[in-house]
């Protein structure tokens, strides 16, 4: 199933999203999450069976799911969407109605394209906000991950505070639909 991502016609091409299939996508995703550039994904030492098991668990979870993002029809990024009141942030923040949690990872490449990662996070946010029940996206990047923090800020995220998670110290950040539209030009995209 393909869903629209970035609505903006742009020189970087078309973005779409499909459900991740652990049996089909595990090898692809394993290469992405174990790459040195994915250090913050915390799966650097994972073997293929670990990745397949992780995404089977996510697929079976009632409050967590994963997607493959496509760029011009080719797999290019990973999205995890979760209910932050049930997964990842349960008990760590003051949830609001319509909150959704998100992780994203751009596939490693030897030929980076200027602006591509920003286009991906914009497509991810478009995908999440395509659900009318979503009012705010929350994220919890590692406090030392300045690259993703800059991307988050560029699409409207506001840092709420630092939180301690079992695996990391994180910057709890949130972005409302209005903040996202103001930061990215709204329907002009």
Q: How are the SSEs ordered, and which strands pair?
A:
Elements: E1 3-4, E2 15-19, H1 22-33, H2 48-60, E3 64-71, E4 74-82, E5 99-106, H3 116-129, E6 136-139, H4 146-154, E7 158-165, E8 168-176, H5 177-184
Parallel strand pairs: 5-6
Antiparallel strand pairs: 1-2, 2-3, 3-4, 4-5, 6-8, 7-8
Helix pairs in contact: 1-2
Quick description:
By secondary structure, the protein is an alpha+beta fold.
Structure write-up:
By secondary structure, the protein is of the alpha+beta class. 30% of the residues lie in helices and 28% in strands. The chain contains five helices and eight strands. The protein has helices spanning 22-33, 48-60, 116-129, 146-154, 177-184; strands at residues 3-4, 15-19, 64-71, 74-82, 99-106, 136-139, 158-165, 168-176. Strands 1-2-3-4-5-6-8-7 form an eight-stranded mixed sheet, sandwiched between helices. Helix 1 crosses helix 2 (48-60). It is globular. Mean pLDDT is 90; it is low at 1-9.
The secondary-structure class comes to alpha+beta
What is the number of strand segments?
8
Strands in their spatial order, largest beta sheet? 1-2-3-4-5-6-8-7
Mean pLDDT reading:
90
Pick out its properties.
189 residues, alpha+beta, 8-stranded mixed beta sheet, 8 strands, 28% strand, globular, disordered N terminus
């Amino acid at each position: 199933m393909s869903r629209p991502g970035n609505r903006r016609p742009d020189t970087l091409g078309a973005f779409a999203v499909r459900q991740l299939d652990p049996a089909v996508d595990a090898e692809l995703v394993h290469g992405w999450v174990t790459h040195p550039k994915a250090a913050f994904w915390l799966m650097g030492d994972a073997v293929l069976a670990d990745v397949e098991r992780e995404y089977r668990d996510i697929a079976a979870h009632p409050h967590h799911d994963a997607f493959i993002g496509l760029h011009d029809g080719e797999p290019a990024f990973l999205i995890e969407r979760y209910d932050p009141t049930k997964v990842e942030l349960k008990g760590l923040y003051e949830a609001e109605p319509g909150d959704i949690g998100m992780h994203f990872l751009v596939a490693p490449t030897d030929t980076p394209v200027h602006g591509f990662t920003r286009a991906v996070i914009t497509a991810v946010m478009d995908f999440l906000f395509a659900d009318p029940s979503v009012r705010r996206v929350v994220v919890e990047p590692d406090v030392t991950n300045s690259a993703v923090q800059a991307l988050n800020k560029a699409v409207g995220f506001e840092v709420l505070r630092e939180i301690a998670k079992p695996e990391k110290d994180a910057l709890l950040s949130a972005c409302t639909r209005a903040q996202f539209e103001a930061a990215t030009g709204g329907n002009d995209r």
